[in-house]
């Protein structure tokens, strides 16, 4: 694992966990993928920094992996609610970095919060929200709620932005939103240069308060 980069551990290589691990890895972060199944670990091994087959409910096994050194640990365990809760509890007691845990339902989510998960996510419920958002606004490709007020969304560059750079667009000043990445031909450019011109087909990854993001969306929907 390289020094200096943010390090993520993702526990549970089901559909959700493996997609999180792959996405983080593609964005250039160090990712450790953990699953009890050796088969699943092997499947993901070529796509992440490191993949290990281990029982996450075994404190010694987690300690041996140096889990305390990770900035963020995502508990993405699927159906086994007991394993999800026990893993979260062990991570909390070990004082690891930020713990993000996936919940199956509201009750599971409440338990995870009580025992120390810093953030609980509900992928199935959130996917419904994101789909609704995408249907309403054709320019918005993806939408992630970070907290009560802040969200991240991906937006296809509207015609009016093509050929202009981030300084000219001045989205921070006008709308209070920040472009944190530009995706072009499947390559993700984190912290893009403000002078770089935008091309047709570019995808902007924008973070901001929900109300500001809505204002930005509406402005570019009206004018294209």
How is this fold's topology laid out?
Elements: E1 7-11, H1 15-26, E2 30-35, H2 38-45, E3 50-53, H3 59-64, E4 72-75, H4 81-93, E5 98-102, H5 106-114, E6 119-121, H6 123-136, E7 140-145, E8 150-156, H7 166-169, H8 171-175, E9 178-184, E10 187-190, E11 203-209, H9 210-223
Parallel strand pairs: 1-2, 1-4, 2-3, 4-5, 5-6
Antiparallel strand pairs: 7-8, 8-11, 9-10, 9-11
Number of separate helices? 9
Q: SSE string, helix = H, strand = E?
A: EHEHEHEHEHEHEEHHEEEH
Q: What is the tally of beta strands?
A: 11
Largest sheet: 6 strands, parallel
Strand order of the largest sheet: 3-2-1-4-5-6
Low-confidence stretches: none
The dominant shape is elongated
Residue fraction in strands:
25-35%
Roughly what is the average pLDDT, rounded to an integer? 85
The helix content is 25-40%
Straight-line distance between termini: 44 Å
What's the gyration radius in Å?
19 Å
Structural class: alpha/beta
Characterization of the model:
The structure is a single chain. By secondary structure, the chain is α/β, with parallel strands linked by helices. Helix content is 38%, strand content 26%. The protein contains 9 helices and 11 strands. The N and C termini lie far apart (44 Å).
Name the features:
elongated, 5-stranded antiparallel β-sheet, alpha/beta, 6-stranded parallel β-sheet, 224 residues, 11 strands
Write a compact overview of the structure shown.
This protein has 9 helices and 11 strands. The chain is an alpha/beta fold. The protein is elongated and about 55 Å long.
């Amino acid at each position: 694992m390289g020094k200096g980069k943010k390090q993520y551990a993702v526990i549970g290589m089901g559909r959700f966990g493996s997609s999180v691990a792959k996405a983080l890895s593609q964005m250039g972060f160090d990712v450790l993928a953990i699953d009890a199944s050796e088969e699943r670990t092997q499947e993901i091994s070529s796509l992440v920094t490191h993949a290990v087959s281990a029982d996450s409910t075994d404190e010694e096994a987690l300690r041996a992996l140096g889990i305390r050194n990770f900035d963020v640990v995502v508990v993405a365990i699927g159906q086994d609610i007991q394993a999800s809760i026990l893993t979260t509890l062990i991570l909390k007691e070990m004082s690891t970095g930020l713990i993000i845990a996936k919940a199956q339902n509201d009750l599971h989510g409440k338990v995870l919060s009580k025992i120390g998960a810093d953030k609980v996510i509900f992928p199935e419920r959130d996917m419904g929200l994101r789909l609704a958002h995408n249907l309403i606004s054709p320019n918005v490709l993806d939408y992630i709620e970070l907290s009560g007020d802040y969200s991240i969304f991906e937006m296809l560059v509207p015609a009016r932005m093509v050929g202009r750079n981030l300084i000219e667009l001045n989205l921070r000043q006008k709308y209070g939103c920040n472009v944190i990445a530009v995706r072009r031909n499947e390559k993700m450019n984190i912290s893009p240069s403000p002078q770089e011109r935008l091309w047709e087909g570019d995808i902007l990854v924008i973070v901001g308060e929900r109300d500001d993001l809505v204002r930005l969306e509406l402005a570019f929907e009206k004018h294209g």
